[in-house]
Amino acid sequence: MLLSWDAAAVRAAEEPLLAAGVPLMDRAAFGLATHVAHVLRDVRGRVGGAHVVLLVGPGNNGGDTLHAGARLARRGARVTAVLASPRVHGDGLAALRAAHGRVVPAHDDAAADALAGTVLAADVVLDGLLGIGGRGGVRGPGARLVGALAAAAARPVVVAVDVPSGVGVDDGTRTGAVAQADVTVTFGACKPALLLPPAADAAGRVEVVDLGLDLAGAPAVARLAGADVAALWPVPGRTSHKYARGVLGVVAGSDRYPGAAVLASGGALRAGVGMVRYVGSAGSQVLAAHPEVVVGEGRVQAWVVGPGVAPDDDAQRARARDALVHALAHDEPAAVDAGALDLLPDRVPPHVVLTPHAGELATLLSARGAAVDRADVEAAPLAHARRAHELTGATVLLKGATTVVVGAHGAVYAQADAPAWLATAGAGDVLAGVLGALLAGRAADAVDDPTLPAALAAAAAAVHGRAAHAANPGGPVTASDVAAAVPRVVAGLVTA
Ligand SMILES: NC(=O)C1=CN([C@@H]2O[C@H](COP(=O)(O)OP(=O)(O)OC[C@H]3O[C@@H](n4cnc5c(N)ncnc54)[C@H](O)[C@@H]3O)[C@@H](O)[C@H]2O)[C@@H](O)CC1
Ligand SMILES: Nc1ncnc2c1ncn2[C@@H]1O[C@H](COP(=O)(O)OP(=O)(O)O)[C@@H](O)[C@H]1O
Ligand SMILES: [K+]
Fold first, then answer.
1. 372: part of which helix (H) or strand (E)?
2. Residue numbering of the annotated binding site for (6S)-NADPHX
3. What is the number of the ligand closest to the CA of 478?
4. How far apart are CA 125 and CA 115, in angstroms?
5. What is the CATH number that goes with domain 226-494?
6. For (6S)-NADPHX, which residues are the binding ones (predicted)?
């Protein structure tokens, strides 16, 4: 599991060490210089003679960068520090000067523009403008330098120091131009922005430098690895029977979208549910594709409600509404998707998991008085998923290139397992089915532990994303292909 801590937690953990005189900046700079040296060996074959440009901001982030630059200069690199602020870290600057680094001021826009060529000609650029003390996007001459990097057709390798400058460290937003990093060398602990969209897209590969911080408190954002998914997956014991493994009620599809019923049922079956009971008008299509499905109502442990339920299909909407009422009355977990998102009561427990994409989340929030559109959600996925959790009480899985899950008691996950090929019609229906299988298989646990539904939702997204890759590595997939690959992915995880 990859865990991240927000800026306040990192600062709190640094405090006692700094008070005890532990040289944290030295450790950070040493780790940074070591990673940059690796990068230089990759791009130039060696450190000696390589040209390194430091973009230096006003705070300790600039200080780390200057100290790392001094270490690289002592190893023979040609280091140029571009000072984007009249006030920079004094010790760092002295160290760089002592190591014979070159220092050039860029205290106004014109000076910054004149230095763009120098920046773009470097082998490696260290982005040390802002770290965890940044507020909003990079301003001033630093913004011109970041803009030049963003606009360049061919740019040097960029190493972000701690975080790409200008991202929202805790919420994963990005304001204004952000330098796209190839590597982010982060200090003490991973930060939320390095996992959350859209900021994480600018981070490249993330390397954590251990500073010896004691981060005992709850992490801000987590990302499940394969072993975590395996630990969450309901694996049958030798004496399990189909009812013990979980029966899932699926209220999906409509005359207009019968395929969603097939895909959601298929996702659940492939994820290893004990039985699917299908409720709705697409029974013949579901049976044709999956003869193992039982059509009609009956006892279930959990539900998938909503994929492909058309807004004008009154009969299917009535069944979806009934299923939700039943699920809530009997403490049965439910994945609520697409056409059922507007059927929710005001408040639901966290074992109700909503699975909107950005557009659907915007509609849901707007219906509850927060006027937002799809672009707002995409610009701040965590904040909007959190808002939906607060307004409804549900666990919220917000789909996207990186899927963000917000559950009870501050549980937050960001899963980035999927290739972009997964953005294909019907993929969301398969995900709802996979999640339904997990909720059915662990129904009692999901009701007892309010944070578990979020972990199960993240696990479903992880398997769904991996299945998209496994179905056809590097190439296009259909939603049916993704479902077909789920059993292999699950087998690979639970037997690893
Ligand atoms: N406390 C320590 O000794 C350690 C700090 N570390 C480094 O210190 C960094 C945090 O340092 P700071 O707290 O000094 O903060 P930063 O270096 O992130 O920058 C804060 C400064 O930037 C200015 N600023 C904020 N937002 C701005 C914007 N949008 N545009 C332009 N200027 C802006 C502020 O006025 C302030 O002067 C970490 O990210 C990490 O790199 C590491 O060296 C580990 C140890
Ligand atoms: N750029 C992307 N990269 C990877 N996965 C993506 C990307 N865009 C969307 N996805 C995933 O594809 C699926 C699409 O689901 P959804 O939008 O509900 O489509 P549908 O309603 O057609 O099933 C979701 O699981 C989502 O997380
Ligand atoms: K930075």
1. none
2. 60-64, 131-137, 162, 260, 308, 357, 429
3. 2
4. 13
5. 3.40.1190.20
6. 60-64, 131-137, 162, 260, 308, 357, 429
